[in-house]
Amino acid sequence: MSENSDIDRYVQLIEDKIKNKELKKFANWDKTKNKIKLLPDESEEVQKQQEAQFKELAQNILTKYEKRSNNFFDALEKKYGGKAKKNEYDIDEEEFQKIQSKMGKKEQVKRKSKEVEESNLKKVKKWFMLK
């Protein structure tokens, strides 16, 4: 396909062929060679069309992918049941904090009872040592 940048090359090619007497020179050649009309610049228009086609293609691919993945998950849901069961360990933040505070209290109680046990043990040892 020819472009505007090729016109000078074609004119020079014809001029060389006329010089070498490979082509016959006509009277109209000199009159018309400077009146050559340039091709309309279609590069921007073609580029816009290509971009539009590319966007359309990308959208079609995404749409097909979404349909396919939705169908896949629908099939799994249909095969294995409806909604997923709530895991016994799935808790919200409030429940988590309650459990943490209970555990902290239990730890405190354990520490206190261990301290009391140790002090009682020391007392018993002292009592036996004295006797």
Structural description of this entry:
- By secondary structure, this protein is mainly α.
- It has a domain at 1-39.
- It has four helices and no strands.
- It has helices at residues 7-19, 27-32, 43-80, 93-130.
- The mean pLDDT is 80.
Give the topology, please:
Blueprint: H1 7-19, H2 27-32, H3 43-80, H4 93-130
**Backbone CA Rg:** 46 Å
Structural class: mainly alpha
Number of helical stretches of at least 4 residues: 4
Query: Which runs of at least 5 residues are low in confidence (pLDDT < 50)?
Result: none
The rounded distance between the terminal residues' Cα atoms is 118 Å
Helix content: over 70%
| Multimer state | single chain
Shape: rod-shaped
Give the rounded overall mean pLDDT.
80
Task: Please give the number of β-strands.
Answer: 0
